Backbone:
């Protein structure tokens, strides 16, 4: 079982590392029992800045996943992550970077991005 977000963009929050309110960091605040998000082009500077801040963690964790795929690894363990020197914060930032990219692309394609996140 997992927590999902649905609307203009869809996906699943990364298990045990990403909060349902992750999209708050990109300039819109979730509301209600579900977190409802609305972004438009005015949010793009905030999104771009946040993605820039998250990029080092994304690069580090992405490299870990790419190396794993090359070696036939389809998942990961806490020990593997620890051995790679990746913190829980970096793993969370990696997941948030992917969400931020989806939000940014949705705005560029549609002029806005709306979705609801499960709490």
Residues:
């Amino acid at each position: 079982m997992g927590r999902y977000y649905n609307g203009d963009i869809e996906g699943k929050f990364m298990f045990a590392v990403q909060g349902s309110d992750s999209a708050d960091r990109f300039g819109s605040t979730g509301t209600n029992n579900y977190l409802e998000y609305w972004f438009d082009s005015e949010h793009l500077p905030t999104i771009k800045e946040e993605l820039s801040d998250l990029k080092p963690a994304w690069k580090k964790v992405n490299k870990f996943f790419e190396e794993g795929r090359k070696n036939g690894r389809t998942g990961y363990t806490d020990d593997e992550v620890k051995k790679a020197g990746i913190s829980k914060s970096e793993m969370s930032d990696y997941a948030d970077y992917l969400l931020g990219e989806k939000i940014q692309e949705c705005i560029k394609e549609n002029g806005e991005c709306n979705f609801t996140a499960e709490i």
Remarks:
- The longest strand covers residues 35-40.
